[in-house]
């Protein structure tokens, strides 16, 4: 049957014959859609690559941050002692990170107060005025170690638990059996906590117990555990798969943490922290770096500890 007869009997085809022009238009539209998809996918990656190149060529100045874990329950505020004191240095230029832990029974020089146990400095500052604790801690590090601390992070027990839970918990390799028969409870009593050796996943409350227990092996071992927990937290945050949890982390930081670190600080220091963390220099100020004055009274052995601080802090 001829095409003319077919049209006469059935009418025009709803699918006109494809012409070279139509094929070119179809390919152009398809390629345009593909190009749009590629731009959507590659633009953020390109921005990231450009940011990292600029970051590496013109790195920000180093920053020293003091991290204070306060001995407070929810609603108690910050007029309390510190369970944990860590000093963190981030140097984006050299991609180096330094971390120093000072146990609570170490006495250092505090402006206008003389020699004071380090875990009481926050209280002394808060007694001067609400929010003055971190400022006095910063001034004390300058007085004792000549370190200009630019920023602080202060969080209570609830803030720590929220932060760990926000990243989905932490994987901790417990080096030895730990049994604490007198671990303090929130209501002032005691309880037994136990950690068996080996790798285990800890939620926020369990990680808090691991970081706080000290009755079996003392403050120096506790400071090492606190660094271990901090290490696990940084590694978890540096995992690209954690991007889905970053909004929860940000909410936990904003709601449960007191800090003078702003968004620009995070942008400046974040890459340096994550990229330099695996090769960090870390130290717990244990009896090898201390001088015992009397029972429960330790002062830093400045001749021994200052060379390490000068090398790893600004």
Largest sheet: 6 strands, mixed
Radius of gyration over alpha carbons? Answer: 29 Å
What would you call the shape? Answer: elongated
Which fold name is given in CATH as the topology of the largest domain?
Answer: Aminopeptidase
Query: What share of the residues does DSSP label as strand, in percent?
Result: 15-25%
Q: What is the terminal separation in angstroms? A: 92 Å
Q: Residue ranges: pLDDT <50 for 5 or more in a row?
A: none
CATH class of the largest domain: Alpha Beta
Overall pLDDT metric: 86
SSE ordering: HHEEEEEHHEHEEEEHHHEHEEEH
The assigned CATH architecture of the largest domain is 3-Layer(aba) Sandwich
Given the helix and strand composition, which structural class is it? alpha+beta
| Estimated helix fraction | 40-55%
Count up the helices. 10
Q: Compute the number of structural domains.
A: 2
What do you see in this structure?
By secondary structure, the chain is of the alpha+beta class. The chain folds into two domains: 14-57; 63-312, 3-Layer(aba) Sandwich (Aminopeptidase), CATH 3.40.630.190. Helix content is 46%, strand content 24%. The protein has ten helices and 14 strands. It has a six-stranded mixed beta sheet with strand order 11-6-1-2-3-12, with helices on both faces. A two-stranded antiparallel sheet has the order 4-5. A two-stranded antiparallel sheet has the order 7-10. Strand 8 and strand 9 form a beta hairpin. Helix 5 packs across helix 6 (204-212), helix 5 runs antiparallel to helix 8 (246-256) and helix 6 (204-212) runs antiparallel to helix 7. The chain is elongated and about 95 Å long. The mean pLDDT is 86.
């Amino acid at each position: 049957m001829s095409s003319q007869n077919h049209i006469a009997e059935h009418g025009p085809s709803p699918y006109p014959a494809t012409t070279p022009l139509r094929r070119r238009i179809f390919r152009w539209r398809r390629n345009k859609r593909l190009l749009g998809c590629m731009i959507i996918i590659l633009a953020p990656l390109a921005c990231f690559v450009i940011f990292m190149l600029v970051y590496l060529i013109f790195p920000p100045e180093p920053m020293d941050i003091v991290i204070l874990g306060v001995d407070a329950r929810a609603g108690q505020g910050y007029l309390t002692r510190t369970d944990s004191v860590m000093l963190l240095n981030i140097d984006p230029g050299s991609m180096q990170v330094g971390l120093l832990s000072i146990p609570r029974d170490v006495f250092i020089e505090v402006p206008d107060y003389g020699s004071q146990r380090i875990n009481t400095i926050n209280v002394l500052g808060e007694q001067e005025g609400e929010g003055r604790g971190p400022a006095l801690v910063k001034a004390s590090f300058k007085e004792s170690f000549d370190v200009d601390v630019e920023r602080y992070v202060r969080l209570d027990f609830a803030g720590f638990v929220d932060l760990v839970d926000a990243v989905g918990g932490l994987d901790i390799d417990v080096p030895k059996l730990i049994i604490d028969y007198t671990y303090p409870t929130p209501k002032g009593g005691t309880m037994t906590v136990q950690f068996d050796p080996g790798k285990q996943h800890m939620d926020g409350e369990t990680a808090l117990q691991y970081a706080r227990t000290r009755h079996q092996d003392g403050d120096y071992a506790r400071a090492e555990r606190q660094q271990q927990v901090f290490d696990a937290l940084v590694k978890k945050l540096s995992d690209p798969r954690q991007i889905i949890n970053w909004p929860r982390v940000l909410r936990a930081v904003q709601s449960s943490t007191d800090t003078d670190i702003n968004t620009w600080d995070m942008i400046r220091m974040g890459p340096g922290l994550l990229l330099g963390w695996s090769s960090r220099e870390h130290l717990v100020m244990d009896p090898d770096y201390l001088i015992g004055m009397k029972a429960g009274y330790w002062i830093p052995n400045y001749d021994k500890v200052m060379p390490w601080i000068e090398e790893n802090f600004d």
